[in-house]
Amino acid sequence: MNPLKQVDILIKRYPELAYQRDNIIAAYNIMEKSYSNKGKLLIAGNGGSAADAEHIVGELMKGFENPRKLDTDYIKRMEAIDIEMGKVLGDNLQGGLPAIALDGHLSLSTAYMNDCEPLLCFAQQVNGFGKENDVFLAISTSGNSKNILYAATVAKAKGMKVIGLTGVNDSKLSDMADVTIRSSEKRTYMIQEHHLPIYHCLCLMLEEKFFGGNN
Asked: How far apart are CA 121 and CA 127, in angstroms?
């Protein structure tokens, strides 16, 4: 399937998101270019959006809907190191698209929040992990979460692209991001109910681009 067909499927199921079609495709193109250039995705959010960040990593770092078989030469290199372990690895490992959820590093986060400025915790991680060709996916239902905005500022300064995932309203994040995908809702839980199918669509598109697929 052409990866862009996933957008048609999303909009058929959620017609209220049709007005975001171009933004979803633009966000996909940014991530596709990043991964094609050996970049990675950094993701951050608060509360339910932090859970969404972890969810996205799970869909990108292993098979989502389709098998992601490893390259034959890579499997042979592992078997050359140890034939038994190499075979097990070759049979079970799956291709991954590198992604890091910034809410998942408790020791680093608590140390930084205790020693420095708590609102800069995500910014510190973007400062340490981020590089040019990487992408920062900033999830904020309001679009005005200060810790997300600080992290986006660092990302932009590093030459990274920033994708915002927000509610319907204009926000500081939508002003700053290279592209913003908006729910059509204003209430937090309703916005989050749109965010999940949006990022599932993006993950499916990326999987089909880099690993093929027939679903």
From this structure: 10
> How many domains would you assign to the chain?
1
CA dist 202 and 109 (Å) reads: 28
Task: Determine the Cα–Cα distance for residues 100 and 58; give it in Å rounded to an integer.
Answer: 10
Q: Does 84 fall in a domain?
A: no
> Tell me: the pLDDT tens digits for 115-151?
999 999 999 999 999 999 999 999 999 999 999 999 9
The answer to whether residues 38 and 178 touch, using CB atoms and an 8 Å cutoff, is no
First and final CA of the chain: distance in angstroms? 7
Amino acid at 1: M
Q: Quick one: 203 exposed, middle or buried, by C-beta within 10 A (0-12, 13-18, 19+)?
A: buried
Both tokens assigned to 196: 């999940």
User: CA-CA distances (angstroms) from residue 18 to 5, 9, 35, 105, 198?
Assistant: 13, 11, 26, 36, 11
pTM beyond cutoff 0.90 = yes
Domain interval for residue 60:
4-66+96-212
Residue 37 three-state SS:
coil
Both tokens of residue 33? 């270019």
Write the CATH number for 130: 3.40.50.10490
8-36: average pLDDT: 98
